[in-house]
Structures are given as C-alpha cells and as structure tokens.
Write a structure and sequence with these properties.
The complex is a heterodimer.
Chain A: H1 4-27, H2 40-56, H3 82-90, H4 92-97, H5 101-109, H6 123-134, H7 136-139, H8 144-159, H9 162-197, H10 207-211, H11 214-238, H12 255-261, H13 266-269, H14 284-291, H15 303-312, E1 314-315, E2 320-321, E3 330-331, H16 344-350, H17 355-359, H18 376-385, H19 400-408
Antiparallel strand pairs in A: 1-2
Chain B: E1 6-7, H1 10-14, H2 17-24, H3 32-40, H4 46-66, E2 72-73, E3 93-100, E4 105-113, E5 116-122, H5 133-142, E6 152-153, E7 156-157, H6 160-176, E8 180-185, H7 191-203, E9 207-211, H8 218-227, E10 234-236, E11 243-247, H9 258-266, E12 280-285, H10 290-293, E13 297-300, H11 306-316, H12 330-345, E14 350-354, H13 359-372, E15 379-384, H14 392-403, E16 407-413, H15 417-420, H16 424-433, E17 436-439, E18 453-454, E19 465-470, E20 473-477, H17 490-497, H18 504-516, H19 520-526, E21 528-529, H20 542-547, E22 560-565, H21 579-583, E23 597-600, H22 601-607, E24 617-625, E25 628-637, E26 644-648, E27 672-674, E28 677-679, E29 681-695, E30 725-727, H23 728-733, H24 741-749, E31 768-773, H25 782-790, H26 798-802, E32 811-817, E33 824-830, E34 849-851, E35 857-859, H27 869-873, E36 880-881, H28 914-917, E37 932-933, H29 939-951, H30 964-968, E38 974-978, H31 985-992, E39 996-997, E40 1009-1012, E41 1014-1016
Parallel strand pairs in B: 8-9, 8-16, 11-12, 11-14, 12-13, 16-17, 17-18, 22-26, 23-25, 30-41, 31-40
Antiparallel strand pairs in B: 1-32, 3-4, 4-5, 6-7, 6-18, 10-15, 19-20, 20-21, 22-29, 23-26, 24-25, 24-29, 27-28, 31-38, 32-33, 34-35, 36-37, 39-40
Classes of the chains: A mainly alpha, B alpha/beta.
Amino acid sequence: MHSCKPIRKILALLVFLLLLTQSTSTFAAFAVPDVAATDAAGVEKVKSGMTLFKANCTACHALDRKVVGPALAGVWEKWESEEKFVHWVQNPAKLIASGDAYANKIFNENNKVMMTAFPTLSADQIKDILLYLKNPAAAEPAKAPAADATASSSSGAATGDKGSSNWYVWILAAFLAVLALLLWSVTSKLDKAVKEKAGEKVEDESLTKKLFSNKTLKVLLLIGSILLVFNIFNGAIDLGRSQGYAPDQPIKFSHALHVGQNQIECQYCHTGVEKSRHASIPGTQICMNCHKYVQQGPKFGKDEIAKIYDYSGWDPDKGKFVKAPKNIEWVKIHNLPDHVYFNHSQHVKVGGIDCKTCHGKVEEYEVMKQFAPLSMGWCINCHRQTEVKFADNNYYSIFQKYKAELKKGTKAKVTVADIGGTECQKCHY
Amino acid sequence: MSNKKYWTSLDELNNTPQYQESAAVEFKDATENDIAEEQSQGGTNRRDFLKVMGFSVSAAALASACKIPTHKAIPYTIDLRKQVPEVVPGVADYFASSFTDGTDFVNILVKTREGRPIKIEPNNDSPLGGTTAHSEASVLSLYDTTRLATPTQKNKKADWKSVDADVTQKLNAIAASGGKIAIVTGTITSVVTKKAIEKFVAKYPSTTVVAYDAVSNYATRKANQISVGAAIIPTIHFDKAEVIVGFNSDFIGTGISALSNVKKYIANRVPSKENPKMSRHHQFQSNVTITGSNADYKYPIKPSEEKQALINLYAEIGGSISGVKTLSGKDANDGIKKVAKELLAAKGKSVVISDTNDVDVQLLVNAINATLGNYGTVIDTANTSNLKAGNDEALAALANDLKAGAYKGIIFLNANPVYNTPYADIFKEAIKKAELSISTADRPDETAQFCTYVCPDNNYLESWDIISPVTGFYGFVQPAISPLFDTRQTAATLLTWAGDTTPIAEVVQAEVATITGANYRAAVQAGFYGSIGLAGGASANAASAIAALSTATASAANGLEVVFYEKSGVGDGSFANNPFLQEMPDPITKVTWDNYVCVPYSFAKEKGIDAQPAEKNVPIAKVTINGKTLELPVVVQFGQAQNTLAIAVGYGREKAGPAGDAVGKNVYTLLKAVNGVTSFSTSGATFELTGKEYQLGLNQTYHTLMEDNSLPMREKRYRGSIVKETTLSDYAKNEKSGNEDREHIKEHFSHSLYDGYKPNDYKQGHHWGMVVDLNACIGCGACVVACSIENNVPVVGRRQVYRSQEMHWLRIDRYYSGNPDNPDVAFQPMMCQHCNNAPCENVCPVNATNHSSDGLNQMAYNRCIGTRYCANNCPYKVRRFNWLDYQGVDSFGTFNDGKMSFTDTQAQSYMFEDLTRMVLNPDVVTRSRGVIEKCSFCIQRIQEGKLTAKKEGRPVKDGDIKSACQTACSTNAIIFGDQNDKESVVAKTFDTSGRNYFVLEEQHFLPAVGYQVKVRNKDEQPAEFFIDKPEKA
C-alpha cells in the first residue's frame, strides 16, 4: 500500500498530463485549408491576405520567428477556434478580460504587452491572412524572379554597367590596334615593293625604328593628350558625386536585419515617403515601438540597442522614458545639391516607383549606401523612359491631345518627359 | 483711346537728357566715383577679385577632389512623454492666429515648416481675414537678432526668478509707502492684457494706467464723446456708401482698421459689364496718400484750411454755421460745391471721414454726417473700434506729473515714449529719477535702455492671446512656435507680479471658452469669434457738435505749413528694424530706406529744384520747424498742397537694431499738443537748400517699360499701351472703352512674315496665366512683401537701391497723369509676364531661361552664367541680377564680410545670421552671386498644387493654386489660374472681359498676365492734359 502511493501519484499525474495534452491537441486547433497554385480564387485570397499581413502585421510579427509578437506560422494549431482568433485580432483586450485561458497565456508570455487591436479588419480579411500564413508560397507569383531580373537589368542599363562595357571596349580596341598594325605593315611592304619595282632604292626600316619615328611619337602624344583631357573631364563631372558612399553611422543600424530578415516595410520607419518631399529618417520614437521589447540584436548584442535607449531617454530597467530624447546625428548619405527639388511622395505615391529603383537592394545592405549616382543625367534618363499612370490618374485627363493619340495608336505611351518632366523648373526653383 | 501722357518722376515729366539716358540703359554703370569710394571703404577691386576667384576655384577643386563634405541628417525626434501634435517633416502646417499693430487688425494663418513660422497667410474664413505689408513682414521680426534673450537688470543679463523677486519687493515697498506707479502703454486690444492690468491695479491700487498712440486719433474719440455721447471710433461700412469724401484720411492706407475698410471699399470700386457701377470717392488732401491716390477727384488743401473747408461744406449742405470763407485753391472751392451736391443726392448713402487729430475737424465731420443721415446706414456707432484708444490728454498730464517727480515706479508695456512722443526728455529724466523703472520691450530700445529692468515680451507668434479689435469680435492668438528665447508674455509678467502664477495658456484657454461658450480648441482653430454686421447705433448730434466748436479762429498760417504723416512701410516706427518694410518702396514716392521732406511741384519750380541733377541725387534742405532744424533730402511730390511740406514719422530710430538705426530723422520731437490733442501739422516752417546732395534709394525712375514713341501711330501716345484707363460713364456705354485699339492689334497678329509659322499653342495640359485688375489694386504693397518672403528675395539696402540693384520680383509701378499740381495716379503691379514669345529667352547664350510646356518662362539659376542679356532684352524690366552674395550661399565666404550696415556701401548680410535664416522658405533655393532671378509665378506653389491633385487623382481646380501675391491681396487685384481651364477666372476674363488687355500687346510678346483697364468714376476726362485733344466720336 505504502509503496503504491507514489506510483499512484505518478499515475494520476500521467493521466492528468495525458488529459491535458489531449485537451490541447483535440480542442486547441482549427483547420486552415491548403491552397494549390492552380486554384485561382484561392491564390487571390492568399494574395489579399499577404497585402493585409504586410500592411498591418509585419510591424510586430513574422512568419517564422518572434519579432515583437510571436511567430505566426502554425498559429491555427494554438487557437481553439477560428472565431476566437478573429475575436482576438479584432479586440484582444476584451478577450483577455473575458478570462480566456489561451489569450491570457500569450498575454503573459509576451511581457503583458497588449497587442494592437484591429477592429477594422473583418472576419473574412482575417481568414485571408490565415490563408496566407498557411500558404505563403502561393502568394509568390511564379514569374517573380524574372520580374526581379528585368528590374535589376533595367536599373543596370540606367546606371550604365561600367565593368562589363569597359572590358568589351578594351578587347575591341586591342583587336583594332592589332589590325591597324597588320594593315600598316602590309601597306608599307607593298609600298616598298612598288617602289623597288620602279627602281627606287629604298632603305629598309626596322619596325622598332618606325615605331619610335617622329611621326609616331606625335600621333601617340596626340592620343595621349586626348585621353588625358577625356579623363580630367570625366573626373570633373564626378566631382561631388558619391555613388556607393557608405559612411560609418553613429549606430550600426543594419537594413539587412530589419528589412531583409525581419521584413519590416520601408514605410514603417520612413513615414513621410507618401506624404512629403522627405521620406524622413525615423526619430527614436519609431525605433522604440519595437525596441522597448527587442532588447538584443543578433550581431552586436545589447551594445547598439543600448545607444537607442540613451538617445531616446528610455530606461530599460524601469521600462519607461526618463529623459528628454536626443537627436541621432546620422551621416547624410543622399546629398542633392540645394538647387534641386526632389519630392518622394511625387515618385512613390503618384509615380508608384519602387524604393529599390533608386535605393537598390536595401534588404541586403549591412551598411546603408548610395546606390544611384543621383546625377542629372540619371534623373533625366528615367524621366524619359518612365511612363506616367495616364489612364489610372484622372489628373492627366487635361492632356487631351495625348489621349486622342493614344486612342488612335499614334502614340504608344506617355512618359514623364512628355508632360514636361525634363523641363528646368520641374526640379530647379 | 486714351492718349494721356503718363510720367513717373520729375525728370521724366521734364524729359531731361539725364532721364533719357537712364531710361535707355538697363544697368547703371558704376561711376568713377563709386569705384573710388568703394576702394576707400576697403571694397574689392578687380585684381583682388581675380586673385580670390583663382584661389577659390582651385581650392574648391582640391577640396572636392579630396573628400566629400559630411552632412548630417537629423531626424524629427518626438519626446514621447509629452503630447505633441503630429508633424510630417516637409509638409507645412497652418495655425490660425491674429495680428495687430494697434492701428490695424487681421486674422491670419501662420505657415510653419518643421515647427518654424515662415510665412503669414490670410485667414479667409474671417471677415477680418487678410494680410497687410506689416503682417506679412512680421514673421521676420520673430527672428530679429536684436531681441533680448533674457530679462536684464541694469542692461546686464538676469534671470526671471531674481527679477520677479526684486520687482515684487520694490512694488510692495512703493505701494506700502503710498507711492504712485505709472503703467505707460500703447493701445491695448488684448482682452488678456487688460485683465492682467486690472489684477495688477487691484494688487497695487496706487497705479495709474496711461495709454497713448504714437500716431494718435484721440480727437475722433473726443469729438464723439461730445456729439455721440461716447468716446468711440465708429465702424464705417464703405460698401454701403455711394459717395465717399475723405479729408486727410488715409482710411485704406495707414488709417484705423484699414484692412476692414479696404475690403468694404473695394466692393464698390470694381465695375463689371453686368454691374457698371462704382462708388465715387473725393479726397481733400494736404499730402498724397494711398487713399488719395485711389480717389476719383482730389483737391489739394493746406492743413490749416481743413477746418475751413469743412465749415464751407457744412454750410453748402444746408447746415447753419457762420464763418464761411473762400479757400485759397480754386480746385478746392469748386470741389466743395460739387461734393455738396453729390452728398445731398446720396443722403444716408455717403460718408465724410477725416483722420486729422483735431477735435474741431472731427466735430464738423460728425455734424455733416449727421445732417446727411449717414449714421445707422453707413456709420455704425454700435460696433465700435477698440483700436487707437490712446489718450493724448492723459499722456500730457502724465508728462506733467513726471516732471514734478510724482511717480516712484514706471512700467512701460511695449511703449517707447522716449522715441515716439514729444515728451522724450521728460521721460528720460523721470526714468532716471524713479525708484523702479521697467520696460517689457523685446529689445533695449530708446526707452528700455534707461530702465533698471527689461522684461522682454514674447513675439506674438510665441504667445497666447485674445484680441478684440471691434466690440463683439475676437481674434485668437496661439503660439506657432515655442519661445525662441527666455522671454515671457507681458500679460504673464504682470500677473506674476500681481501674485497670480497660473500659466498664461490656461488663462487664455479659460477666457476663450468663456467668450465663445464652446471648446477652446475649436475656437482657436477657427481663429476668431463673432461677426461685424451693420448694427446701426446712435447718430451724432449736429447741433451739439457745432456748438462745441472752438471759437478761437486759427491764427493766420504764416510761412510754410508742415504735415507729419505715417508711411505704410515702417508705420509709426515700431517696425523700423524690419528690413522687408524698410525696403518696401513707399506706394506714392517709391522711396525706400528714408524719410525726407516732400515738397509740392509748384514749390519745387519756385525753388528751382526741378533743375537739380537728375536721377537719384536729390538736394538736401534745411527745414526749421518750431525752432528745431533738420536736414532732410527733398522729394518732389505731385498733388501735394501748395506751400505745404510733408515729413514722415517713424524714422530716426537710435535703438531699433541694425536695420532701423540711423535711417532718416525723427520728427516725433517736433509734435505739439493743440487744445489737448497732439497735432500732426504745424505752420511757420522755413525751408532752405543746403547745396548738398543725397543719394536716395528711389525706385521707379529706372526699369522703365519700353515703348517706341517714334512710330507714326505712337507719337501722340505716351505709355498708352502700358496703362489704359477710361471713365465710368464711357465704360457703361462701351465695355471696351479705353481698350479700343485691341481689335486693331489682334488684327495685325493674323499676319505673319513667316509662312506657316505657328507659335506653340499650349493647348493641352496647363497654361498658367494671371489677371491683374488696375481698379482693384490700391497700391498698398502687401504683395511685394509677401513675394519677397515666399521666394527668399533678398533685401539689399539703401545704397544698392540707389544703384538700381534692388531685387524685388514684383514691383508696383506708379504713374501720374494730368495736371502736375494735382495729377491722377495709377498703380500697376508689374512682374514677369511669362511671355510666350519671350525676348529674354532667345538671347540667353546658355539656355538658362526657356519656356516650359505649361507656359512658364523658366529660370534655371544653376545654369545662368550672368551675361544679363536677358535683363537687357526684357521689355518689362522685371529681371534682377544678384550683384552680391546677399544670402551667404556662396561656398567660400562672402565679399561682404558682414561688416557693412544697410545704409552703407553694400547690403548688410542680415541673411547670414543663423537665426534670421530660419525665415527662409525651404522649398525655394537661395540664389548665389552672379545669376539672374525673377518672378516664377510661385512655381513651388504650382508644383505643390499639381502634386496634391495627382495624389487625389483629379485635375487641378481653379483656386487650388494661388501665388503669394494673390493670397496677400485683400482686394483680389491679382488672380492666378490656368488659361486652359475654361472654368477658371483667368480664362473667363481673358475670353470675355472687355477691360482685359496685355501690356505692350502690339509688340507680340504674348504675355500671360492680363491687365484690366482702369475705370475712374469721373464725369469726363479733363481735356487740357492730353498730349492731343481726345478724338470726339
């Protein structure tokens, strides 16, 4: 009897644990269907889910890892029903207050930080998000890599791929030089033959002698000076341009980590990009949205994040702001001259230009750098090639002549240059 | 067709050889004298310039080759512990606020960028919304480097805590011993300051409060006390008046509540095809004002004759009065009869108004208006003005008491009596003797410099306040920026000393809620509360007014008479340190940076002044007034009364700051009280030419519009295709009256020498254009200041203006026509006309100026190499060259060294100060030395308007885009818009208005600015002043 006691206790515990696991595995899960790539309607839903997810959730959540909130892949296995999950997203505070066990559990697990409520998201929209979470691959269009390739090649063309074209030019030049030399030796031999035939006595000049003759030197000198002037001229054009400029910054902020790994949208920090001429560099108030909770980074540990706390006046031990914030004096990378007016919202909001077009693959930059040359030729070139959203935006309805020409087919597209985008006072005032 | 002769200056009227020469060249060459002078003053000569240039270029090349200059990017950081409104860097925020200078009141919007105010715009929701030259320029006063950064004690830095402790202790000591305390202040329209003073007086009951105005209208209140029964200044509804008669009243210029008057006045001054009606405006004037220049009929009268003229008029309209006497001028005598007839025909729909600070004059005005029944219909004694509430008698009494040493404590609330009263010496002595002397001036001014404590006030853009300009109407002031310095609002200072330390924001917010009965946030967002309707009110009693007239006959005026007047630029002198206002050309004389003695044309002829050297070298005269002698430059003023001199107050500051000090001469010291009120005219002056010359910063004698008078058709017309005018009766008969030659010109355009040549038609997209109405333009100059602030146009200083190198993108040309003793005046705003066939464009060797597809004449500063060919070829003379680095934008220092003062050889580098640079518009680049600039039609506003439309996916609507000059204009004289938008005002006016014409249209420049023919409400054009008699139809 006595000896049985612990065994019974253990047994009872086992049964309880079994029941407990049973209960979680049986009740705490709901099904989210798979979507095949061929299911067009399903893919549409997944895509809308992706858009919603990126717009609303990525600030705090990722699929596969904890950001501010927990990873969301497999979230359907943790919640007991879809309704509860929807309820949670729409009003987490209410669900917690209702005493729901799992809601309280994750609330406690996440340092009692209340998730932002999304009362505007409908149940269907939340279901779309769930579909995307289950089938992230379905949202990626099959042609995506190709599109990327064209994007990068077009930007390559715009900036002028110096490396490859130089190589080609040098080979060609060498070939032409050899050819010229050959032709010259042939003609001189023929010339000599003709002159000998005519009975003239011709001095046999060696090739080296000819190469260092007065005439050749003069020609070489001329070519040399042309090259020198060309180089100086090119160098002068490059004065004040700083493509690839990647200075050290007061905080070792990594776009590769934030954008690449954590997939935070550009607009989350650069809030002005659709509203203002400045995309704007975020103040510490934006950093602290996440870094109140993310206190350690993968590369520099707590050191770099401690700098943000110092700048923002945050005391991580007390968990509140204790001082007035200081400005982080970032080193400015993209320096346009004062006489150039550039407006981000014009390009991003109206023109729909992707950030990458001018800033490159920021998601790979460990240290931020200037991707584009930011030269006037580069601007103008893009204005000549880029089509405006002529049909989509009613503003352009005042260009009746183009409208008629497009209709007739005499004009293929309306570019920025067509509506005056290369005129002086569009950028200089 | 008008074939009047127009002229701008004496030289032009006489057509001197010097004038012909100066009109023919665009740029005045530096004379040998100029160069020698410059070198003696340590200026740069050519050799030095080349040396410096060579060094700079190589240094620049080296520097840029070695390393990239590091710039910092500072994020917009928000303190999360505070509630901060959301700011999007790069997007402007607008805050409703109010501006007052004691004379005028306007409801404004303060445009801020990244938290700093950069521009004042009108609050068009308010009946008193608008901007004036003063309010537009006031944003620069915020960034005045002369402002005190801390309170001071004996002109040394102090802190508020110790100052408050000291002052309270001393006040208590004085009050305990029964000593008297004086608070000297200007007109207080602030409800909050008034309450603070009440609390202060309650705490220290031995306090006397004396309010005075530097330029006073006390007589108006005193006369109304007698004839209406209350010391009020009525509101005058000019829109209800068919006949307006001004007697030395500048009611749309520097008069009381001018903005409100302007808005009402202009309602009846712009005729249209549908409604060809105008009010008729007569003006009896001693010196020429904006108001006089806009009148249909003008009659010069000497200041001593004003009372007589009113007596005659009162008798003429049937009032019983003795003492009718003939006036000296024939025009004026005939005028009285004509005016009386018209007034009698418009009983109850007319108004007689005077600003003269003479109780008799005001009583007569009241009697005339009462007899005509204008009270209750045009003159509103129920809605009365709180502006100009100063009391001349109280000031005189105070001066008397101060002399006797009656006051132990004196507090100056932003008042500067040592500068702007005739009692300067008394105040100076009294301050020194007083136990406690305090000033709340924002700078150590003439008065504050002697005070023990200076407790600097906030700028109004840093303050909370409630201003009541008219009974029942409130304008709210909210801070658009935190105080830049350690200053404190005066009301808060007084409250602190009265023992009430409630933060001023809370005081004001509670008060706003009480006034509006609503949430203070909503009220402050609107910026105003109340309306200004016609409420009627009691009439003046003509009999009691006449009975109260002083019987003392004016002593026969001997010698020259003098009028002291206010200029619309610096006003009473409180704005003296605002370079924008100093450089704003006076609307009439077109002189910047100085006061001077205006003499009438007849006097000038008599003294041989018209034979003086041409251009801007004017003689200096010694003027003796009331025993004091001043040396002042002489300006000949057409239309000024005979034997009358006019000198502006507001100049000759000693402690205003670098821009205002030693500019002109102070004449406040020459004022005298007559029958208890300060008189702004006097007689018995003497005038003597010194033989010396003065280089005056005068505009308008150059930058003369081209007109080829040698052509056969042209010879009898002088500026006939620049200013066009007609009379109302002709206009009513023929909409195209005065504009008849347009058809002929258009006919010519159908022919071309070049077969198949077609100019660009700008038929799709935008084609920007502008309408300027010569009837609506009153010449006030608010647009000039607004343009300068919006577009970072530099101030250059008197010396540069003298050399015809001022930078204004927009100028207002003033033309005289008719009798030189009493001419008509026309104002014409002139800016880049954005010609489709622009002569400037095809002479540029580097294509720095060219045409855009939306019809703009573009100027690319970074492309310009400074040949100035374009400016030489511009027929409208609107291009400006940066002769110097005015804004400190050149990379390698400056040639100005920041040493010179404004009146010196070169412009002082006021824009080199970090503080002052905060006023710059970040959307417009500052131009460097050696490039041309000009009006861009506010391209930054066009681009912003287009962008907003694109973001909203709609076409641009008419009115979305307004140029800075348009927003500044309270009379809608300037309207910007798209000629291709057939619904726009511009397109409709161009297409349908018979008054529309283009300046120098026959030259086929195809300008984009259409002017509207000026219509004068005259019976007929007096024939004798035409070059040729008008052709009778």
